[in-house]
Amino acid sequence: MRPIPLDEIRPVLATDPRWTSDGVELELEHTVVKVDEDDGRLRAVLDACDGWRNVAEIREQHGAEAGDLLVELLDTGALVDVEGLWRRFHRLSGNPPPVTRVISDEEVDALVAETFVPPSSMGDPIEVHAAPSALGRAAHRRSSALPLPEPRPLRWEQLQTLLRVAYGRGERWFSVPSGGALYPLVLHVILRKTLGPLEPGIWWYDHWRGALRLQSPGRPEVEPFLVSHPITDPLVEREEPLLAISADLSRTCRKYGARGYRFALMETGAVMQTAYLVGAELGIPIRACGGYSDAGMNRLLAHPDGVVCMLALFAGA
Ligand SMILES: Cc1cc2nc3c(=O)[nH]c(=O)nc-3n(C[C@H](O)[C@H](O)[C@H](O)COP(=O)(O)O)c2cc1C
User: What is the 169 CA–ligand 1 centroid distance (Å)?
Assistant: First the structure.
């Protein structure tokens, strides 16, 4: 995160507070920060951390001790500047999820069969048809790769095309739109086997240059961070490349606040869909994969604070 002068920080909690009889517990990714209540003012101080008021204003309103508490909580990461508000939803939507309700397989089947229908009454349906187009054909052929008996290894020229088309510069800008043209996504190729000129390692795709750079050499141990599933386990065993799509949220949220998180998700989706379309056109097996450990993947990719993995893609099968 960029350094912001202490008094200008507009603090917000990076997590939902859990109130206890002693005070408050703030559960973060790696720690639980506990603050004891001794003078009955803790709740008012944390309530003041609403993203509107800065540290100087809160200190003035609640006193020097409150200011010290803010410094302490900012140090632990339990409080962050309002630019870091995305952390709250990111943690809640993380894997493994901190809070969730487990649903049965039957409920999942029922959900798949359900669809949205507007609540008000409607007129008769008018069918719509697509004009023939190469893109339409690719879109309608698109599907997520399955581990078929015959392996379909990714070729070097296919990887290049995937990267250049899914997040590459075109005549003017990139192949996908980006809120504010910030292009905050960070793409990596997690490569466990040699591919063309690429040795095993973690390769960073420099989308501005259209070039791959070796970020860390050696076969990456990605397997422990992937959630085991009957479809993806055989794909993992084939040791085909995994593309990791991450977002530099510190950049996009600096401009857009928490809304930058949405924008990053949308851009990730655009890259994912473009990869699927290229895959359908060129016969490259693709499968999106949200089933990974957030912390593990971010560690593997050596992400600095503020950069997080949003989605992985199996390429090749
Ligand atoms: C955001 C996202 C996350 C996904 N995560 C996984 C995953 O972890 N494992 C998996 O096997 N498929 C995953 N998929 C693929 C879906 O299961 C697949 O798109 C869906 O079953 C529809 O099948 P189709 O893509 O072949 O049409 C994911 C898809 C999306 C869009």
Answer: 27
